[in-house]
User: Which sequence fits this backbone?
């Protein structure tokens, strides 16, 4: 591309392609105007320059799956824990709730206490606001020894503890989305496993391991709820404290 020089003759050509010309390189530093989005990055596809539009805050620049170009990805990449959010009750409330995006595994961290208005409260978990009798829990606990029992009471929630007095509960649960790759008679719904330290004002400290299934939840998990209620029915107590949910996808 030649420029007229007001009687001084044509200026040397700039190099806009890989064709050898007699001019110097094109100056990109604060002089060249291009039709690019603010913050964009350019890269070569082997034939010409391409634009990579700026990503989201905290994104990381990674190589795409084909190994041919850069792209933006959530910081940490696939297989890393992502924060879904948290809920906090500084005063007595009905529940703690976190709405979540679709993922394969959820990590639920909690440090909560009963509001003190149930004789035998349990910490319980529900998914997607489902309250039908579709939850099954197996609990094992002990202070000086261990006892195991299947949850054969009201199966409208997963139990994360055992019945007790005015209890405090802290621990971690993992909730697994139903996997459509499994045979129908292998794992037909959502599952969970949790470990809770239960501290009662009227009984020793217990450590409880709970596992459970819910065969009615075969699609995406959208919400995780913690409640305190009577172990034998659905009389909601009150709950104070906090919960945080993280998620992970395998791919």
Assistant:
């Amino acid at each position: 591309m030649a420029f007229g020089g007001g009687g001084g003759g044509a200026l040397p050509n700039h190099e806009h392609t890989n064709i050898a010309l007699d001019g110097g390189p094109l100056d990109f530093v604060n002089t060249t105007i291009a039709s690019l989005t603010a913050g964009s990055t350019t890269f070569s596809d082997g034939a010409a320059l391409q634009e990579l539009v700026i990503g989201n805050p905290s994104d990381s620049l990674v190589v795409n799956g084909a190994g041919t170009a850069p792209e933006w990805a959530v910081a940490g990449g696939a297989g890393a824990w992502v924060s879904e959010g948290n809920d906090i009750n500084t005063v007595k409330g009905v529940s703690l709730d976190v709405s979540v995006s679709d993922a394969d595994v959820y990590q639920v961290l909690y440090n909560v206490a009963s509001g003190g208005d149930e004789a035998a409260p349990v910490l319980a978990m529900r998914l997607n606001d489902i309250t039908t009798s579709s939850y099954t829990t197996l609990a094992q606990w002990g202070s000086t020894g261990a006892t195991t029992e299947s949850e054969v009471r009201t199966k409208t929630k997963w139990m994360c503890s055992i019945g007790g007095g005015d209890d405090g509960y802290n621990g971690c649960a993992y909730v697994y989305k139903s996997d459509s790759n499994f045979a129908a008679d292998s794992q037909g719904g959502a599952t969970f496993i949790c470990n809770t330290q239960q501290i009662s004002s009227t009984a020793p400290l217990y450590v409880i391991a709970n596992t459970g299934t819910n065969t009615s939840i075969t699609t995406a998990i959208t919400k995780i709820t913690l409640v305190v209620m009577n172990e034998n029915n659905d009389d909601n107590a009150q709950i104070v404290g906090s919960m945080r949910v993280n998620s992970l996808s395998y791919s």
Summary: Residues 41-73 form one domain.
